[in-house]
């Protein structure tokens, strides 16, 4: 993104960039943002591979694999699915507020724990279908599921738990078993599925996904794991690129709406 901004700046102000005494004011930056249709957004950091050419090769190989599968199963896109994990906090860790000009700091007192939240595993199919969500609670027994369970909201969603609240190896293996059962229940009368029940799952390269036990289980379940290139989820992960950002923005707006009414929201 930095290279893109530099190119945009050179294009917008070709003469100013060559001046030795060039100084940028706040108004100048505001004008630049408006002129180039830019906005200020919170940054998400991604560690890129040091070898850029190798990264490009991996991305190209991944795109070719995806294109081949999409063409091969263009009439059976339900075979291809994408899973991704994301953490949703029960409160907002950062936010904007009004402050007196020149003030050194702004404190906002809240009652919620900004680290409290839940991990969600979302799954979509290449035909646009959405599978039920998987929720990962923090705890040692099924009793911790009560912290989120609600008959008005949850029906056929999968609720799991781990000591950390993250999708561990055991959690992901349970997810794979659930995914196979979901396909068996949904497509058991589909002639093509009866003949060949293979599933292709696109996912990140987390250690919980790539360990030997998980790979063996996936093979036993006839699920082919297609890994997103390391450090390139923002470029290759469909859910990360097109879905999670919008959902988190909606969740943030909803939280602030409720908090403006009830400041004791937890």
TrEMBL record:
Query: Looking at the keywords, is Transmembrane helix present?
Result: no
A Pfam short name: DDE_1
Region forming the signal peptide: none
What is the protein name stated in its UniProt record? DDE superfamily endonuclease containing protein
Which chain regions cross the lipid bilayer?
none
- Keywords annotated in UniProt: Endonuclease, Hydrolase, Nuclease
- Which InterPro entries does the protein's record reference? CenT-Element_Derived (IPR050863), DDE_SF_endonuclease_dom (IPR004875), RNaseH_sf (IPR036397)
Coiled-coil positions:
none
Top-level taxon in the UniProt lineage: Eukaryota
Q: Name one GO molecular function term.
A: endonuclease activity
Location of the DDE-1 domain: 119-258
For the keyword Glycosyltransferase, the answer is no
